[in-house]
Automatic annotation (TrEMBL):
GO terms for cellular component: outer membrane-bounded periplasmic space. Keywords: Signal. The keyword Metal-binding does not apply. The keyword Kinase does not apply. Gene3D superfamilies: Bacterial extracellular solute-binding protein, family 7 (3.40.190.170). NCBIfam families: dctP (TIGR00787), TRAP_S1 (NF037995). GO terms for biological process: transmembrane transport. Residues 1-19 form the signal peptide. This is TRAP transporter substrate-binding protein. InterPro entries: DctP_fam, TRAP_DctP, TRAP_DctP_sf. GO terms for molecular function: carbohydrate binding. It holds the Pfam family DctP.
Length: 337
C-alpha cells in the first residue's frame, strides 16, 4: 500500500493530480525488490539544472553498478509539489528521494543552519571540500528516526540580490527593499542584516510577485535566475554572494534499511561521488546562465561585499548557540584555504 496521507498543501489541483498519478504508478516503498526498483525522486528545478544532470549520472552509475537492480526516476519542475511537500512524501515513503534546500532540514535539527550561514564558505572550492570531506557525515545521519536521512549535499552556488529599478551595491541601497527569501527564519534574518526586508515565499510565486510589485526583487544563484527568466522582472543582478545554501539529497529511511547491504554501500558511495560531478557541472553552467541573462537585458554589477559581511557578523554569532554548532562552524572554517 502507498501512503498518500501527507496531502500536498501548497500546490495547484492540476499539480496534485499529476503528482497522485505519478505516485500511484510503478512501485512504492512496499514493492517487492524484483526486477528494477525505481527510486522516485522529487526535484523542484528544471532539467537544465546541473543538479538534475548529476542525478541522471548518479542513476546511470547506480543502475550499472547494481546490474539493473536500482535506478532513479526523477520528477523535475515541482511536479511532486514544492520542497516542503516532497520532503513529506519522502518521510512517508510515498517516494524514495528528493532534493531539498538546507533550510527545510533545519526544522529537524538546528545544527544544519551552520551550512547556510552568511559568508561561512570563502568560495565554491571551499564548499566543495566541506561537502566531499566526510566532515558532515554525522550531521547527515542525525535526522534518522524522522523518516529520512541526508545522503549528500549539492551546491546551489552563491546567492546574490537582484532587483528592478537599480543595482544594490551597499546596505544603504537595501533599505526599504522587499526581497523574497526561502521560507526560513535564518534567511529572513540574513536579509535584515544586509539592510533590507526578507519576504519568505515559495520559489514558484516569485516571478509574479516581483511583476506585481509585491516585491522589489529576490535573491538566488545565476542558474536559477536565468532558468526561471527572473531577469525579465528584476534585471539588476548585484553580486552580493551573501550565502551559499546547500541543497540536500534526502532518502527515505525504510527504503535504505531494506536495501541489501552491498547495494546500500554502492548507493551511498555513488551518491557521494555525484556531489563531485555536480560541482563540476555547476561550474561549467555558470557562464552560460550569466550570458543568457545578459542577452535578455540583465545587468550584472560587482559589489564590495565587506560592508555586508560586517553587518552580518552579529547574525553569525547569534546562529552559533550550541556546542555542536560551534564545532561544526570551526570544522568548516578549518577547511578554508
Ligand atoms: C535554489 C536552490 C533550490 C531552492 C531555490 C529557492 O535554486 O537550488 O533548492 O528551492 O533556490 O530559492 O527556493
Amino acid at each position: 500500500m502507498l501512503h498518500l496521507k501527507p496531502v500536498l498543501p501548497k500546490i495547484s489541483l492540476i499539480a496534485t493530480a499529476v503528482a497522485a498519478t505519478i505516485l500511484l504508478s510503478g512501485c512504492g516503498d512496499d514493492a517487492a525488490p524484483t526486477g528494477t526498483v525505481t527510486l522516485k525522486t522529487a526535484f523542484n528545478q528544471s532539467e537544465n539544472n546541473p543538479q538534475y544532470k548529476a542525478l541522471v549520472s548518479f542513476s546511470d552509475k547506480l543502475e550499472s553498478a547494481t546490474n539493473g537492480r536500482y535506478k532513479l526516476e526523477i520528477h523535475p519542475n515541482e511536479l511532486l509539489g514544492d520542497q516542503r511537500a516532497s520532503l513529506e512524501l519522502v518521510q512517508s515513503g510515498a517516494i524514495q528521494m528528493a532534493v531539498v534546500a538546507n533550510p527545510l532540514v533545519e526544522n529537524f535539527n538546528k545544527n544544519f543552519s551552520v551550512l547556510a550561514m552568511p559568508y561561512v564558505y570563502d568560495n565554491p572550492e571551499h564548499q566543495r571540500k566541506v561537502f566531499t570531506s566526510g566532515a558532515l557525515d554525522s550531521l547527515f545521519a542525525s535526522t534518522k528516526g524522522t523518516g529520512f536521512e541526508v545522503i549528500t549535499a549539492y551546491t546551489a552556488g552563491a546567492r546574490s540580490v537582484y532587483t528592478k529599478g537599480a543595482a544594490v551595491t551597499s546596505p544603504a541601497n537595501m533599505q526599504g527593499k522587499k526581497i523574497r527569501v526561502m521560507q526560513s527564519d535564518t534567511m529572513i534574518k540574513m536579509l535584515s542584516c544586509m539592510g533590507g526586508t526578507g519576504v519568505p515565499m515559495g520559489q514558484g510565486e516569485v516571478y509574479s510577485a516581483i511583476q506585481q510589485g509585491v516585491l522589489d526583487g529576490a535573491e538566488n544563484n545565476e542558474i536559477t535566475y536565468a532558468d526561471l527568466k527572473q531577469y525579465e522582472v528584476a534585471p539588476y543582478f548585484s553580486a552580493t554572494r551573501h550565502v551559499m545554501v546547500a541543497d540536500l539529497l534526502v532518502a527515505n529511511e525504510n527504503f535504505l534499511a531494506k536495501m541489501d547491504e552491498g547495494d546500500r554501500e554502492l548507493f551511498r558511495k555513488l551518491a557521494k561521488e555525484s556531489t563531485q560531478t555536480q560541482f563540476e557541472l555547476w561550474d561549467k553552467a555558470l557562464d552560460g546562465a550569466r550570458q543568457t541573462a545578459k542577452d535578455n537585458g540583465a545587468t550584472f554589477t560587482e559589489v564590495d561585499i565587506k560592508p555586508f559581511q560586517e553587518r552580518c557578523k552579529p547574525l553569525q554569532s547569534a546562529m552559533l548557540t550550541t556546542p555542536e554548532q560551534k564545532a561544526l562552524y570551526e570544522t568548516i572554517r578549518e577547511l578554508a584555504e
